[in-house]
Amino acid sequence: MRSHLLEGKVRHRRSSPFVYELEHDVWYFALDLDEIDEAASKLRLVSRNRRNVLTFRDDDHMLPPAVSLAESVREHLSGYSVDPVDWRITLVTNLRILGYLFNPASFYLCRDAAGELRVVIVEVNNTHGERRLYTLWPERRGDEHTASMEKDFYVSPFIGMDAGYTVRTWDRPSELRIAINETEHGSPVLTTSVVLRRLPATNRAVGRLLTRYPFVTLKTIGAIYWHALRLWLKGASFHRHGAARGHGTRVAGALPPGQGTAR
């Protein structure tokens, strides 16, 4: 089974208007979209679209919410003049824990039939129940998948909409690294990194991670509000959600080189 688990750390470092750092232990599922049912059948605590300790729901992902996630992602990719029928697509995400889920970001790692990482789709959710997809084609190919995009979606109240991201992905056999550098008005403001080691998806490993990091999805949303309070108390500029309306009204992304304007 290609699906597996990922365990490691997420780090945030804000460099403007003051330095602010945080670090958390995290774990994720890395699900091959063509074997979700197989993973659910082998892992006692995991189910697909029905209640369990851990639940994967197709409609927790994509725009519009998916009925069959593998079909939705391939349909999305086919809109960029590629044929992803034989592609291997791995979703890095949290599952629902006892029914609750908040995923700030999930990542679809899309490899072609030759095994090359061709596309990274970043699926972003905010605390207002909104979702956007950023479809990233590499600026250069190789061991490091690098792509940039303009911010088109309200996420943090402490960073305005005149911002942009550069996303770097290293999808290696032993580990996965993702680094996101955010600029505001052209100046660096926030660096986020996730460094994860790969673990086999076994019942024992799932049980260990649940015991070591219980309710990780609740921990995520709690940490968001806790650090937001600390930033506000430190005097960080606050951008209201209503002021950003009109931004991010489309699914943001970039077409492959030579394919015209982003859809």
Shape: globular
Low-confidence stretches: 245-263
The biggest beta sheet reads:
10 strands, antiparallel
Total helical segments: 4
Number of domains: 1
Derived from helix and strand composition plus strand pairing, the structural class reads alpha+beta
Question: What strand order characterises the main sheet?
Answer: 9-8-7-5-2-1-13-12-11-10
The rounded Rg comes to 18 Å
Residue fraction in strands: 35-45%
Q: Termini distance?
A: 34 Å
Q: What is the mean predicted local confidence, pLDDT?
A: 89
**Secondary-structure element order, as H and E?**
EEHEEHEEEEEEEEEHH
Q: Work out the helicity level.
A: 10-25%
Q: Can you count the beta strands? A: 13
Which descriptors apply to this entry?
single chain, 263 residues, alpha+beta, 10-stranded antiparallel sheet, 3-stranded mixed sheet, 4 helices, 13 strands, 17% helix, 38% strand, globular, disordered C terminus
